[in-house]
Design brief:
Blueprint lengths: L25 E4 L9 H14 L8 H4 L5 H11 L7 H16 L8 H11 L2 E5 L4 H10 L8 E3 L12 H10 L6 E5 L2 H9 L3 E5 L5 H6 L4 E3 L2 H10 L1
Helix pairs in contact: 1-4, 5-10
Amino acid sequence: MRGKSVGQVPDKITMQTQNKKNGFQTCIFDFDGVIVDSEPLHAMAKQNTLDNFQIKYPSTLFAEFKGRTDRDFFEYVSQELAEGKATFEEMDTYKRQVYLKLFESVPLMQGIQDFVSFARKRFNKLGLATSATARDFSLAAQRYPLQTWFDVIITGSDTVRHKPDPEPYLRAMSMLSVTGYETLVIEDSPNGIKSAKAANCTVVAITTSFKAGELRQAGADMIVTSFSEIEQQLRAS
């Protein structure tokens, strides 16, 4: 499979479990685009912010920074696009205010509740590792019982380096007392995939935010369009 060109990449591949003596012991989830359908809200809030400060930007900008931190985004904008119209702090503050209003109606990803119920029985422990801030996670946790779903929660506020660096997953695995070979990760972005693969995890990528070819190119071991597909693969393994 790995020898094929991107144009020949299949939409999904068989779950690989070899070299994992006892199989997967832990499943670690990303947050934006995996647990909550918040990626469109982040993009909308960022676009609203740049429009508010009359900053011109290419149409591809938001997709290029999907899965990366707000700090990365606004540092780039302030250095390359703002032309003195707004500081990093001004843009970041404005975006948070817009996002807070939009987030009041953020939905869970379709099928996630049923999959978490299955995963609680299938794995010894569940974790969450995200580059989102603790504040953003807490907003969702006030709306949904996310704290009860996971044994370990790592947010961007808990790490020095963020995805695509492996630190978020390495820290989560350390707290869960597992290795990468025992860990299955569910991601939706190339940066998240690179982070998990650098931590030696097996990665299932779900096509909620990016196309299958982009996720496969980033190194995903399996690509699915729904959580029910992941459950079917796990039941069959």
